[in-house]
Write a structure and sequence with these properties.
Blueprint (H helix, E strand, L loop, with lengths): L1 H11 L1 H4 L2 H26 L2 H4 L8 H34 L4 H7 L1 H21 L3 E4 L6 E4 L20 H27 L1
Antiparallel strand pairs: 1-2
């Protein structure tokens, strides 16, 4: 609800939408809305044929779609948060004007967020990496082998996905660590 209210507030008020800060907040809100909505609907996407849990009604395609949307939201959200923090550092610590950020950096903020999140989501989709993770209920569709655990048990062959731990490190964990380190460094600089 909070993300929706922030997005509506930015869109409805011209003075908010006309600022770099307002557009970055809109990006953060919309990408967070994609992530949270996808997480809320994940139990409906889990395919019964891959996990066999009670109450699962999805298919392999719905799981792949949910995984793609989750990846898209997560990657673009961390990039938008980093852009927002960089905006704060540049305006507060270095005296950059709104116009300077708008001309030199804002197109990069939106372009990199879109290009990187879409390319990572599509790459994982093409490699059949989105499968149910047998996590505590409810299960989610994200980077995993199918059937679950096939990479760690020798006598189970992976039907979908493969080498998912490498992809998890490359697409989620390392970028996440870099992103959150960047956010914290920016917060310290502003403080």
């Amino acid at each position: 609800i909070g993300n929706t209210l922030i997005a509506l507030s930015v869109v409805r008020r011209k003075q908010h939408y006309d600022t770099v800060y307002g557009r970055l907040m809109l990006g953060v809100s919309l990408t967070n809305l994609i992530t949270t909505t996808t997480l809320a609907l994940q139990p409906l996407a889990v395919p019964k044929e891959l996990l066999g849990e009670y109450g699962t009604v999805g298919s392999v395609k719905s799981c792949s779609t949910a995984g793609s949307l989750l990846m898209l939201g997560l990657v673009s959200n961390i990039i938008y948060l980093g852009a927002l923090m960089l905006h704060f550092v540049l305006t507060i610590c270095h005296g950059w004007t709104e116009e300077r950020i708008k001309k030199r950096l804002e197109p990069w903020f939106h372009g990199v967020s879109f290009a990187l999140s879409v390319s990572v989501a599509i790459t994982c989709l093409v490699l059949d990496l989105y499968n149910p993770i047998d996590a505590p209920v409810p299960s989610v569709c994200f980077i995993a082998g199918a059937p679950y655990g096939c990479e760690f048990v020798e006598f189970i062959d992976c039907e979908r996905g493969g080498n998912t731990s490498t992809y998890m490190w490359a697409f989620v964990l390392v970028p996440g660590l870099i992103g959150y380190t960047f956010l914290n460094v920016c917060l310290v600089m502003v403080y």
